[in-house]
Amino acid sequence: MPKQPNPIDVQVGEKIRMRRRLLGISQETLGTALGVTFQQVQKYEKGTNRVSASRLQNVAEILGVSPSYFFSGEGEPGDRESASATEIADFVSSREGLDLNIAYSRIGSRALRRRILGLVTALADGTADVGNEMP
């Protein structure tokens, strides 16, 4: 039976992946900056291989965060908040989530961003009036 990755290693890997993709950095670019192959970066991101403390410090510097960033925001395994955070991290790390976040962040008007957020929230809550009003 194959050994399962430690949940903390998986969490650290997810945070590396999410931040790297948010910055638009490829696995190859991150690997080159770290002196490792892109395959090694993949293993870090999946939690298959552990990231040493010194390597995590290097990753944090490259990605512009503190090392504590990789450990924040998660509850105990099995907590509802932890599951929700994992779902959010999965979405934000997806191509669609990344594209949405990049496009949203490019909207210059704070008022417009708030209106878009209100619309999306209403759609998600099922309270938006989106009947068949097509002409």
TrEMBL record:
Q: Where is the HTH cro/C1-type domain?
A: 16-70
| Gene3D superfamilies hit by this protein | lambda repressor-like DNA-binding domains
Which UniProt keyword terms apply here? Answer: DNA-binding
Give the highest taxon in the source lineage: Bacteria
Q: Which SUPFAM superfamilies match?
A: lambda repressor-like DNA-binding domains
Cited InterPro entries = Cro/C1-type_HTH, Lambda_DNA-bd_dom_sf
**GO molecular function per UniProt:** DNA binding
State whether keyword Transmembrane applies: no
Kindly give the PANTHER family that the UniProt entry links to this protein.
DNA-BIDING PHAGE PROTEIN (PTHR46558:SF4), TRACRIPTIONAL REGULATORY PROTEIN-RELATED-RELATED (PTHR46558)
Name the UniProt record assigns to this protein:
Transcriptional regulator with XRE-family HTH domain
**Species in which this protein is naturally found:** Rhizobium subbaraonis
